[in-house]
């Protein structure tokens, strides 16, 4: 009989593909780097072909690795759904999730649909606020689980993906050429705002803060109306936006880490079930920039 693929190895493989590093992937899957390397060695032996190629410090996928990635995601998702259907169908109660509205439109439909199908007896309460406010709600025992986002994560969280931060403007306007540069960014406590300002000052680019809001929809509206330039992660790109690059005079921004923070005082079974669905629900967004340009 043909040997089956190991689901745990596939989860580790996905983490490496998304972080670009064995070391970072080890943090995501809570394993040592040597354990991660051993898993990938065994996976390559099972497939009888290499799935990674080294590019400096980064670990990039070979053509076979790219082919495997789609299969791996589908297998892991189905595995989570199967376990939920047979092992945890009796779960009931309420679980409270916090999500920054930067990600609500992109993430929530898939998360809510799959979680509700797997656990029809569980009430899911969702609160959309900036990450800093969600962390305060965790501390106040007002939510059980939060998706948080930060450029430089200072709070212990389970990082499950990294995205590029991107300069964006309207594709119908030349707002990015204005002097001083009009900006639409988050509140002063927003790490994306701090990163944007720091980068502009590093290249001596004059700017003015035209709009400041913690609401992603309001910031996006200012960009699409041609009023300001902003900073968004890949998943936040919308139709009508254009990504600005170094050729436009905009320096590269740091990566954005997205992770989960759990309330240890909440129901661990419900929180763990929801966390599993969140991690397994999120698709790779690496093609988002290409689609938006």
Structural overview:
With 293 residues, the chain is of the alpha/beta class. It folds into 3 domains: 7-85, Winged helix-like DNA-binding domain superfamily/Winged helix DNA-binding domain (Arc Repressor Mutant, subunit A), CATH 1.10.10; 90-156 and 256-284, Periplasmic binding protein-like II (D-Maltodextrin-Binding Protein, domain 2, 3-Layer(aba) Sandwich), CATH 3.40.190.10; 163-255, 3-Layer(aba) Sandwich (D-Maltodextrin-Binding Protein, domain 2), CATH 3.40.190. It contains 10 helices and 11 strands. β1 and β2 (58-61) form a beta hairpin. The longest helix has 25 residues, at 63-87.
Brief summary:
With 293 residues, the protein is of the alpha/beta class.
CATH superfamily of the largest domain: Periplasmic binding protein-like II
Strand content: 15-25%
Q: Report the CATH C-level class of the largest domain.
A: Alpha Beta
Helical content (DSSP H or I, runs of 4+): 40-55%
Radius of gyration: 20 Å
SS elements, strand count: 11
Question: Major sheet, described briefly?
Answer: 7 strands, mixed
What overall form do the CA principal axes indicate?
Answer: globular
Unreliable parts: 283-293
CATH topology call of the largest domain: D-Maltodextrin-Binding Protein, domain 2
Helix-strand sequence: HHHEEHEHEHEEEHEHEEEHH
Question: What are the key terms here?
Answer:
293 residues; alpha/beta; Arc Repressor Mutant, subunit A; D-Maltodextrin-Binding Protein, domain 2; 3 domains; seven-stranded mixed beta sheet; two-stranded antiparallel ribbon; 11 strands; 23% strand
């Amino acid at each position: 009989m043909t040997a089956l693929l190991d689901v745990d190895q596939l989860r580790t493989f996905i983490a490496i593909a998304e972080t670009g590093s064995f070391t970072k992937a080890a943090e995501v899957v809570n394993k040592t780097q040597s354990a991660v390397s051993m898993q990938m060695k065994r996976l390559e032996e099972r497939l009888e072909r290499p799935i990674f190629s080294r590019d400096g410090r980064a670990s990039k996928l070979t053509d076979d690795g790219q082919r495997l990635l789609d299969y791996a995601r589908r297998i892991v998702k189905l595995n989570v759904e199967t376990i939920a259907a047979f092992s945890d169908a009796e779960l009931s109660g309420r679980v409270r999730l916090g999500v920054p509205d930067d990600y609500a439109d992109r993430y929530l439909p898939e998360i809510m649909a799959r979680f509700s199908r797997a656990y029809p007896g569980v009430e899911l309460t969702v609160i959309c606020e900036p990450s800093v406010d969600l962390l305060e709600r965790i501390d106040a025992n007002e939510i059980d689980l939060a998706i948080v986002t930060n450029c430089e994560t200072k709070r212990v969280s389970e990082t499950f993906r990294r995205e590029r931060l991107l300069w964006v403007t309207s594709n119908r306007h030349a707002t990015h050429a204005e002097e001083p540069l009009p900006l639409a960014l988050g509140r002063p406590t927003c790490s994306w705002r701090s990163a944007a300002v720091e980068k502009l000052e590093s290249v001596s680019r004059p700017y003015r803060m035209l709009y400041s809001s913690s609401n992603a929809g309001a910031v996006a509206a200012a960009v699409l109306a041609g009023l300001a330039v902003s900073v968004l992660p890949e998943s936040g790109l919308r139709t009508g936006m254009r990504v600005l690059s170094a050729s436009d005079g905009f320096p590269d921004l740091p990566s954005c880490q997205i992770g989960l923070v759990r309330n240890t005082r909440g129901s661990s079974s419900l929180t763990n079930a929801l966390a599993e669905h969140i991690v397994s629900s999120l698709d790779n967004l690496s093609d988002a920039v290409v689609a938006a340009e």
